[in-house]
């Protein structure tokens, strides 16, 4: 039973990804306005109802999933690469380079990440591209600190010292002797980062700094539906449940990866 439950997060995530990939075949109409079905309840004319402009919530929900996952995975890849390179270089070179990198990361960590992302998104202006840029500027710090810490633990290990003694170049040592060993914690960190980025994108869109109308986003759907919470609560509940399901699935998947990749077990 427990083994079956462990597959639920993977099934939820794969279901969302499959729906996103199949969107061209679904003939979605997320921006079609139908004034006759304003605030339509689920099941009346469409299976998840309509919003305040009569647009189908189901279609907008699927488009919002595409935006959220696209932003989250784009930012994760960018921050993973940049943070890992900076962290490994900082620990490997040491000295004033390491001190400079640590002071820069301390400056970023002095501010709550989401507040700094809001400030950057406000300066850059709304839009998906600016959201990706703002979250990337903020998100690399965690990967950098993790990569630096892991590299400091490994750079003086016997196999690394032996490779240095044999005249192996630093790039080959990092590529073949360090990266494979620090990949597991970085992958786990990346998994949790995706969940946090989905929430961050929804938060920025909720504040009007992310995806702009008429494009759909889970955050903007919750914001628009909050005005009709008493008369049409499904406008908020449906995107909120979708957001909860995918974030919970990714977090549970991250926990499972951490348990499986833990060398102590």
Characterize the structure shown.
There is one protein chain. With 265 residues, this protein is mostly helical. The protein has a single domain (60-261), classed as MetI-like fold (Orthogonal Bundle), CATH 1.10.3720. Helices cover 74% and strands 0% of the residues. Helix 4 (57-93) runs antiparallel to helix 9, helix 7 packs antiparallel against helix 9 (170-206) and helix 9 (170-206) runs parallel beside helix 10 (218-226).
- Quaternary state, please? single chain
Examine the coordinates and then state which fold CATH places here, giving the name of the CATH topology: MetI-like fold
Using DSSP, what is the number of strands? 0
CATH second-level architecture: Orthogonal Bundle
- The class by helix and strand makeup works out as mainly alpha
CATH homolog superfamily: MetI-like
Number of discrete domains:
1
Q: What share of the residues lie within helices? A: over 70%
- Rg on CA atoms, Å: 22 Å
């Amino acid at each position: 039973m427990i083994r079956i439950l462990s597959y639920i997060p993977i099934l939820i995530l794969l279901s969302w990804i499959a729906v996103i990939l199949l969107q061209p075949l679904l003939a979605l109409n997320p921006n079609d306005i139908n004034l006759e079905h304003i605030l339509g309840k689920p099941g009346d004319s469409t299976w998840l109802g309509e919003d305040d402009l009569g647009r189908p919530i189901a279609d907008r929900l699927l488009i919002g999933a595409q935006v959220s996952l696209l932003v989250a995975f784009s930012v994760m890849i960018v921050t993973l690469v940049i943070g890992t390179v900076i962290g490994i270089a900082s620990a490997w070179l040491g000295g004033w380079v390491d001190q400079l990198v640590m002071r820069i990361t301390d400056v970023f960590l002095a501010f709550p990440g989401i507040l700094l992302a809001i400030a950057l998104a406000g300066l850059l202006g709304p839009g998906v591209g600016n959201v990706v840029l703002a979250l990337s500027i903020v998100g690399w710090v965690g990967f950098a600190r993790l990569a630096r810490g892991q590299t400091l633990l490994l750079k003086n290990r016997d196999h690394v010292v032996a490779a240095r003694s044999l005249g192996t170049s630093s790039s080959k040592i990092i590529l073949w002797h360090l990266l494979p060993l620090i990949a597991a914690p970085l992958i786990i960190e990346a998994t949790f980062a995706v969940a946090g980025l989905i929430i961050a994108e929804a938060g920025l869109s909720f504040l009007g700094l992310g995806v702009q109308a008429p494009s759909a986003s889970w955050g903007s759907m919750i914001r628009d539906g909050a005005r009709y919470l008493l008369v049409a609560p499904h406008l908020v509940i449906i995107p909120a449940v979708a957001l909860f399901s995918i974030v919970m699935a990714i977090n549970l998947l991250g926990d499972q990866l951490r348990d499986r990749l833990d060398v102590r077990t």
